[in-house]
Amino acid sequence: MEHVTRPDPRKTAALSAALSGAVDLGALKARADAARQSAAAPAPAAGPAGAPNGSAPWIVDVTEASFQAVVEQSLQVPVVVLLGASYSPESQQLAASLTRLAQPSGGSWILARVDLEQAPRIGQAFGVQSVPTTVAVAGGQPIDAFAGPLADAELQQWIKRLLDALRDRLPGIRAGEANASAPLEEEEPPEDPRFVAAEEAFERGDYVAAQAAFQAILDAEPANELAKEGLAQAKFAERAEAADPSVIAKADGAPDDIDAQLAAADAQVASQQVEEAFKRLVDTVRRVYGDDRDRVRQHLVGLFELFPADDPRVAAARRNLASALY
């Protein structure tokens, strides 16, 4: 399978590999080759078969009977096949997002929505293991896929890169783009006044007020990840502002001084010595026990929250911390 782009390689690598062997569109591939050889100037894509959803002819609900005709349109434009189920809220969410993005596209790509409860053989043909699964088909072949829902911004980027990669190969893309009613743009949601207040406090250096604002959000929404990140940043900024650069040398000379080790780690993170800070606290965890060990562990975990979860320095330090604890 040719991969245009993937929103999350960890989620899609196995799926894409499976699709490359699971889907047999050999007849379509042969037809695509013949079309390229015989058509010096291909005509724009015809409207897709299937049942239109009422908003645009390039958004269709596909059955087992109409699927072949819809996929044949991939000789002209990419066909984004959404394999979902009516019982799955994630399928409904993703269908709504893809429909919103497809409506203004002018037919530069086709959204083919499949309800696997009504058309299970289509899911079997693609080797689907979970819903929703989304597959991009071009030139009669699946070229990319992802499982699960995505945020609208990620979907927009995925579709944009799909079109960019295929524009010179599929003649209907440019024709559809010429008819598009609006460019593919993300509508910015209104700013949350709670976050505005917290961020303004942070920017003026009032870290205590920023912490209180972020904490108030978390009190109302304990799972709010942005508020968690903001609170961690505000707590660290307050500590870092009060840090004495000489604390690092002090901590090096007093390995059993817990307060010095924590302050030194903060100073090192503030001066971009991130790996050194993580190592310092992991080594301290190895040396202490009981409440002191838990205190150091919690401080280190708090430092992890200052960085993206996929930061390799965080991943390595988490592994080292687990080894030190167990």
TrEMBL record:
<protein>
    <submittedName>
        <fullName>Co-chaperone YbbN</fullName>
    </submittedName>
</protein>
<dbReference type="Pfam" id="PF00085">
    <property type="entry name" value="Thioredoxin"/>
</dbReference>
<keyword id="KW-0676">Redox-active center</keyword>
<dbReference type="GO" id="GO:0005737">
    <property type="term" value="C:cytoplasm"/>
</dbReference>
<comment type="similarity">
    <text>Belongs to the thioredoxin family.</text>
</comment>
<feature type="domain" description="Thioredoxin">
    <location>
        <begin position="60"/>
        <end position="160"/>
    </location>
</feature>
<dbReference type="GO" id="GO:0015035">
    <property type="term" value="F:protein-disulfide reductase activity"/>
</dbReference>
<dbReference type="InterPro" id="IPR036249">
    <property type="entry name" value="Thioredoxin-like_sf"/>
</dbReference>
<dbReference type="Pfam" id="PF14561">
    <property type="entry name" value="TPR_20"/>
</dbReference>
<dbReference type="GO" id="GO:0006950">
    <property type="term" value="P:response to stress"/>
</dbReference>
<dbReference type="InterPro" id="IPR011990">
    <property type="entry name" value="TPR-like_helical_dom_sf"/>
</dbReference>
<dbReference type="InterPro" id="IPR013766">
    <property type="entry name" value="Thioredoxin_domain"/>
</dbReference>
